[in-house]
Design brief:
single chain; alpha+beta; Glutamine Phosphoribosylpyrophosphate, subunit 1, domain 1; 10 helices; 12 strands; globular; binds aspartic acid
């Protein structure tokens, strides 16, 4: 993997020599593409009942279908990302919105972010306690405020000024997450011991207008305190979108994703490797997909080397939808205008 960048640069030079501009000028239907995640972790078949397995797949497929419908109808990548995340936030199986993990003080503090690849507009909220769908608030911050990130009470005040749905903090409670907190406290375990999976949710999309978007939403990590904020609301760590390179949403041990700057690092590598200069021939398109996968894997290797784990979803400007994770499994799904439509959980599928 380490020699990858040299190899890719050589491949890029080769591509520019071999593919004359005249060969690029083929008319094509505009592509759309979407990838989603519901968290990564030590998710193993033997720990999952058939009912649970089926229920997770049904939730992922329903969210994927919601995003896909927006894109098939010619809608915007941002709306597709929002549609997916709102559904997963409302689904108690995932650690975002309803079903969010408990803090040390037995409350919930939610983080979310969204980014528009057209102009790199972005919005994020951190540590909000009573907003039903934090992704909607993140989008409002992007569109209706001069800021990128709002936190805590101020963010809630902004939310009520903009008519966002408010719920009591208990609305996010689930017995399953409460038991995780009890184990953290009783056995002095870390969140990583009880949260065998990170349940953060995210989506990345390319629309038929050629625009990319990314979004991520989470309850963070069980037993968090002192106002801890993870990578999900940090633009460049958990979320990034730039039409010139790619869109990324992450899940995992947030501190490592912040230190590595995972989402932006993947996009930046893609951009500096010249993806924008490739032509639209199928061969070059495939080359870009291989490059994107290698870049994402290299950055995830880096996270692992520091001791962190998790995964990312990536969509490229020419419609590749891919995953990279260094955990046993990741709740995930992808669909494209080329006919891809899949949801998956374990690492071997
Ligand atoms: N990345 C999230 C955080 O550190 C956790 C997760 O992915 O579930 O807050």
């Amino acid at each position: 993997m380490r020699g990858f960048f040299t190899a890719a640069a050589t491949g890029f030079a080769f591509a520019l020599t071999v593919f004359a501009p005249s060969a690029w000028a083929q008319e094509e239907e505009p592509r759309w593409s979407i990838a989603i995640h519901g968290g990564a972790g030590t998710i193993a078949r033997e720990n999952m009942s058939d009912e649970e397995d089926a229920a997770y797949r049904a939730s992922l497929q329903a969210a994927l279908d919601a995003g896909r419908k927006v894109l098939e109808d010619g809608g915007e990548a941002l709306d597709a990302v929002e549609a997916v995340i709102v559904m997963l936030e409302d689904d108690a199986r995932f650690n975002a919105g309803r079903g969010a993990v408990f803090t040390w003080d037995e409350t919930h503090e939610l983080d979310a972010s969204i980014m528009d690849g057209r102009n790199r507009d972005a919005g994020a909220v951190a540590g909000v306690t009573g907003i039903r769908n934090p992704i909607l608030l993140a989008r409002k911050v992007m569109t209706d405020s001069p800021h990128v990130m709002l936190a805590g009470e101020g963010a809630e005040e902004f939310a009520s000024e903009h008519g966002l749905e408010v719920v009591p903090n208990e609305w996010f409670d689930t017995d399953f997450r409460r038991r995780s907190l009890e184990r953290v406290k009783a056995d002095k375990l870390s969140a990583l011991d009880v949260d065998v999976k990170f349940g953060t949710v995210g989506a990345v999309a390319l629309d038929t207008h050629g625009n990319l978007a990314a979004g991520t939403s989470t309850g963070g990590m069980t037993g968090k305190r002192w106002g801890r904020i993870g990578d999900a609301p940090i633009i460049g760590a958990g979320t990034y979108a730039d039409n010139r390179s790619c869109a990324v949403s992450a899940t995992g041990w947030g501190e490592y994703f912040i230190r590595v700057g995972v989402a932006q690092q993947i996009c930046l590598a893609m951009r500096f490797m010249g993806v924008g200069a490739f032509g639209p021939s199928e061969q070059e398109r495939l080359q870009k997909g291989t490059m994107a996968q290698a870049v994402a894997d290299t950055v995830m290797d880096d996270v692992k080397e520091l001791g962190g784990d998790g995964g990312v979803i990536v969509v490229t400007p020419d419609g590749h939808a891919l995953y990279s994770f260094n955990t046993a499994g990741m709740y995930r799904g992808r669909a494209t205008s080329e006919g891809v439509n899949e949801v998956a959980i374990y690492g071997d599928e």
